[in-house]
Design goal:
mainly alpha; elongated
Length: 165
């Protein structure tokens, strides 16, 4: 057991462990955005308010609750054009995240810079949204994105090509 614990500790303390976590984070976000895009395209001509109400009732949640009520009102105002735009936007952002993940995996310098620029450009928007409607998920996302920018900025040696002798 001690040998396994030593190997696990050595793996966690490797300089590229954090990079692997970032790559997985980007892949998971990309997959979720692709799922959102597919859902948007499938539901583009459906009555989203009625569907949302059925889902809320199935989950046993009070549809008259303040947050659920606002969500259902938002669904009632969704036009097919808006749903399609959400799907297209989700696909574009999923593609960017996929490119970032692939480039980070291949240790490309451009991927490091792309990830730092894209991730840091979203931080002001996340702070604004957190100030408007605070939630634990927004705090976690903000902390994760700041950590990614700091990690990549401090571990630039992971991306430099090896020196030729």
């Amino acid at each position: 057991m001690s040998e396994l614990k030593d190997k696990l500790s050595a793996e966690v303390h490797r300089p590229d462990f954090g990079l692997r976590v970032i790559i997985i984070w980007k892949i998971v976000k990309s997959a979720l955005l692709v799922a959102l895009a597919i859902s948007a395209f499938v539901l583009v001509h459906r009555d989203l308010h009625a569907l949302g109400t059925r889902v809320v009732m199935w989950l046993g949640i009070d549809p008259a609750g303040p947050r659920v009520g606002r969500f259902l009102v938002m669904l009632a105002g969704m036009t097919p054009g808006r749903v399609t735009a959400i799907g297209i936007g989700a696909l574009i952002y999923a593609a960017v995240l996929g490119v970032e993940a692939w480039g980070l995996h291949r240790r490309r310098v451009w991927a490091e810079w792309l990830t730092i620029i894209v991730t840091s450009s979203l931080i002001p928007l996340e702070i604004y949204e957190l100030a408007r409607h605070p939630s634990a998920g927004k705090v976690i996302t903000l902390i994760a994105n700041v950590a990614i920018v700091i990690y990549l900025g401090r571990h630039r040696f992971l991306f430099f090509p090896p020196r030729r002798r």
